Amino acid sequence: MLARRQWALLLILLVLTLLGFLVSLSSGSAGLGFGEVLQQLLHPDAGLENRILFELRIPRSLAAFVTGALLAMSGVIMQVLLRNPLADPYILGISGGAAVAALAAILFGLGGYWVSEAAFAGALLSILLVFGLARSSHHWSATRLLLTGVVVSAGWGAIINILLTTSSNNSVYSMLFWLMGDLSQSRVGAFSVIALLAGLLLMMYYARALNVLSRGDLQAAALGVPVPRLKLILYFTASLLTASAVTIAGSIGFVGLVTPHMLRMLGARDHRVLLPASVLLGGSFLMIADSIARTIIAPQQLPVGVLTALIGVPAFLLILRHSARHLPE
After folding, report:
1. Phi and psi of 36, rounded to 5°?
2. Which of 273-278's residues contact partners 24+ apart within 8 Å by CB, and which partners?
């Protein structure tokens, strides 16, 4: 049974999520107060405020929440899989493969739909490439997987630099926004929502096994956990979650890295709590960051990835300074 404190944490995060939605829906160059937002939600009319809310802000807020939730949950899984406190959703080169394919689509003048599809295809290619190289000698280990992912990521980075230096100025502008993470044109499809829900349910099923695996492979195997099979499930689940997030908003950093550590600081070390809490906090964090990104220099907008980095860097440094004992061994 979960402790009362853990239930309280989940309740607080749920309230934070609802407040995050309200903040996100009321933020932007066209001012809509909380009261106006609630009025439109409860009693919608056919005016301009209704169109702004339902056609622009609600889809963007949902995109921010789903993206943040996907990245945060993927970060939790990666940190268990690699047993590395610095692991994040992008550490195995998934975002690099997505970026190369997305930038190539932009370079050829394809529209937003094709850019998203190309990003997902590139992410899948990177997932299979890293998996194939890491398993080439029929030996599976976190160290080998991590080293393979880092090398593949470096290769993707070189190709990205080539694309940026050989592209026209107009294309480079769009490419940089994608690389920094941008929600201005983002919309959530059914696939991303299904991926989030299915991933959460699957990981909740394995939550107890994750608690044991986080203590080491030998201890997990001794307690009857099928370690090789579970690691395969973790790798492909985290990779698909990351690929779905990248498809929505490009590369947004620090959400998947900082969120799990913040929750561990708050006492959510049991994965039965950590997983749903990461979904709520990751989604709330990205919604609030996106709200700041589109209001701080309104009517211009900053890429949300810039804000997550500005917030994430000092937050992670504080975590390292004050809560080293909470980091995974």
Report:
1. -65, -40
2. 273/2, 273/6, 273/9, 273/10, 274/76, 275/73, 275/76, 275/200, 275/203, 275/204, 275/207, 276/10, 276/200, 276/204, 277/9, 277/10, 277/13, 278/69, 278/72, 278/73, 278/75, 278/76
Q: State the Cα angle at 168 between 164 and 172, rounded to 5°.
A: 45
**Contact assessment for residue 57 and residue 244, using Cβ atoms and an 8 Å cutoff:** no
Asked, for residue 20, whether it belongs to a domain, the answer is: no
Distance between CA atoms of 9 and 279, rounded to whole angstroms? 13
Specify the amino acid at residue 181. G
71 within domain boundaries: yes
CATH code, domain carrying 196: 1.10.3470.10
What pLDDT shows up at residue 137?
59
Cα–Cα distance, 152 to 90 (Å, whole number): 11
Tokens of 250: 């490009």
Domain of residue 175 covers: 32-323
Look at residue 138 in the predicted model and tell me its pLDDT.
63
pLDDT digits (tens, 9 = 90+) for 75-133: 999 999 998 888 899 999 999 999 999 999 988 888 777 888 999 999 999 999 999 88
Q: What is the DSSP string of 296-317?
A: TTTTS---HHHHHHHHHHHHHH
Residues 66-76 as b or e (16 or more Cβ within 10 Å = b): bbbbbbbbbbb
∠ CA 295-298-299, rounded to 5°:
135
Above 90 in pLDDT, residue 46?
A: no
Q: Is residue 3 part of a domain?
A: no
Short-list 184, 192, 59, 171, CA closest to 117: 192
9 assigned to some structural domain: no
Number of domains comprising the chain? 1
| C-alpha torsion 313→315→320→322, nearest 10 | 150
Write down the residue that tokens 């529209």 correspond to.
111
